[in-house]
Amino acid sequence: MRVLVFNAGSSSLKLGVFDGERQVFKASFDRFGPEGCDLKIGGETSRAPQPDLAGAIAAVPALLDRHGVEKIDAVGHRLAHGGTAFTGPVRIDDAVETRIEALTPLAPLHNPAMLQAVRLARQLWPDLPQVAVFDTSFHLTNPARATTYAVPKAWRDAGLRRFGFHGTSHRYVAQRAAEALGQDAKDLRIVSIHLGNGASACAVQYGRSIDSSMGMTPLEGLVMGTRSGDVDPGAFGFLQRELGLDIPQIEAALYADSGLKALTGSADMRDVEDRAAAGDLEAQLAINIYAYRARKYLGAYAAAMGGLDAVVFTGGIGENSASMRRRICDGLSFLGLMLDDDLNRAPDLTDRAAPQIQAQGSRVAVIVTETAEQLMIAREVRQLLARRAPVPRSIPVAVSGRHVHLSADAVDALFGPGYRLNPGAPLRQPGNWVAEERLSLEGPKGRLERVAILGPLRPRTQIEVSRTDSFALGLDAPVRDSGKLDGTPTVRLIGPAGQLDSNGLIVAARHIHTSPADAEAMGLTDGSLIRVRITGASGRDLVFDRVLIRVAPGTVTEMHIDTDEANAAGIRGAGEGELVGTAVAEL
Ligand SMILES: Nc1ncnc2c1ncn2[C@@H]1O[C@H](COP(=O)(O)OP(=O)(O)O)[C@@H](O)[C@H]1O
Ligand SMILES: CC(=O)OP(=O)(O)O
Ligand SMILES: [Mg+2]
Question: 109 is in which domain, residue-wise?
């Protein structure tokens, strides 16, 4: 299948034609100005007359004609804002186009050009499938504590929340970094730093985005080409009182006349670096501000994830500016992150290489790689068009009350050296049981008594509670997949023979255990995320999105939810779920 991809950014238009994974045509327009722009085709750069993005998009049909690009089977489009409505790629029809248009005020620098590309392509190829891929959807896994602004409820009810952008890029480079390290992204805590004209950092914890520096709009966070990134919201009142500016004026200036452009007169990091090297003090300050902001987010995300395994740089600046990478990473040896200057100087990024540039002995890997938004969009288009609808079937639902999995050391500490737990009632998953023994949990706020212990023993102690329980304990338990325990809070376990302070306190992410045969029959694969409708006698039916599929031989198909989720769906003990759709895949 040949897929044409439009990636309209805020300062460039990138085009790609992909035959499967192979890119057969590549072009980009950038550095727009009144006298035209740079047009890159393959590796050749020439000047073209288009002064802006709109002109470049209008010039695409002639460009494709000139280069004999034909026999396209589908078209993919990058869209910046998908709100909460678009959780993954979607076939574009009139209704989808209207919904995308409604989101334009939230991405005024991006959605208009992107929509222009959509309209042009739908006009040119009315019979081809057209697919929108959204920057925001990768970040829909962010927990509420990351997406919620502390503002009046009426504002939040109206939709004010954080989203995050550059999701296609963060997803690709995090995955690429994991591959380069020979590890599974599900075992890594990665900070992805995309520094293009727009810039954002993203915390990718065990394969999922848990936070990113852009917010409701692509204005929050890092310093960018023409955007401010973080500013005190108190600035709005100040600017109105002191300069008589109204909100549209302030907003327009924060999007288009701030960032590097405001600090130096040029939005282009190449110019800023050249001027700084020639002794320009404003350019030097701009570089310092830019790097300092990025370094702060890097440190913040290491803290948010409870540790850091890898940092990956991408985007025009992240890929090409060794000095910016150096400045961002300086002073982070306390995190175990040290750069190697020689490796950093000129990493070879050809053929999607992802070289490591950390120093010997650095605990944190540092990777540079070219982003591949167009390739990812082409993949998403192929996958969406090939996707077999999941085969609906009913799935038994089990409600997991609070429980603990203990290590052998923990059993010794709590029940006495050499103690063996007594297996009681068997669980549905073969080989698993509830022990006859119980223990207590204690946190700074309170205590939970008679907590169940599940066997067999595990290499690491893991304590699974509901969100409500975590507040009763006074601890902030993160939502995690089983076994992903680094950086989790410590809780006191109290047994008859002793007590033990152990980390490993989590709220278990909802999931479905299934066997390879059942997964095949349902059209599902390990690691995919699906949507399940829970039906019960209570009439409080609920659709759970993003339920993780865990395929393993010898398992009985069963969905596990916690007591908070069960209460919300009005089920007790056990219930039934029905597979109703597939959500976006994770990394
Ligand atoms: N060699 C380089 N050194 C420093 N910055 C560079 C270099 N090459 C490109 N850049 C910067 O990359 C930014 C554009 O990034 P890019 O990812 O292409 O933009 P977009 O967000 O529009 O896709 C510009 O600020 C440009 O100056
Ligand atoms: C969302 C965003 O900022 O995109 P870009 O970097 O292409 O401007
Ligand atoms: Mg970009």
Answer: 2-134
